[in-house]
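testing teh design pipeline on a random one, pls ignore if ur not involved
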């Protein structure tokens, strides 16, 4: 699984002009399932991002997690993170999970996030979304969890 984490002051996602998810300080999580990904990878990715110390402590050092600060998670599906741009000018998305597997893993990830974190909001899988954010820092980190057999 691939994710792109953005530390935000606030973020929201709209579908058809309506806000469907919004958070204050926390993490915008752009999430992509790849072919062959499993629930175990989703679990490891979630555990990692919940404990990742990328928020400032009293001394201004990145030493606190989203859980430590009580921040929000805004989880948005984004299959384009699996883009292969190594040849030609048109990206290939052959490594992205099928829409059915992608939605199953996205829904699983969101359900697990709700079980482990008190403030979780989402986008809408496969929708045309507009994501608005104020990146804090800016801090943007890629996070990838490889399959067990990789």
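output:
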């Amino acid at each position: 699984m691939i994710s792109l984490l953005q530390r935000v002051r606030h973020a929201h996602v709209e579908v058809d002009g309506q806000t469907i998810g919004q958070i204050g300080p926390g993490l915008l999580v752009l999430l992509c399932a790849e072919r062959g990904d499993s629930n175990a990878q989703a679990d490891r990715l979630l555990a990692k991002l919940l404990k990742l110390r990328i928020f400032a402590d009293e001394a201004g050092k990145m030493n606190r997690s989203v859980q430590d600060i009580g921040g929000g998670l805004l989880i948005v599906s984004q299959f384009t993170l699996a883009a292969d741009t190594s040849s030609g000018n048109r990206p290939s998305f052959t490594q992205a999970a099928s829409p059915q597997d992608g939605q199953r893993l996205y829904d699983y990830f969101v359900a697990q996030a709700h079980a482990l974190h008190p403030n979780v909001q989402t986008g809408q899988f496969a929708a045309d979304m507009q994501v608005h954010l104020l990146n804090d820092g800016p801090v943007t980190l890629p996070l990838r969890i490889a399959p067990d057999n990789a």
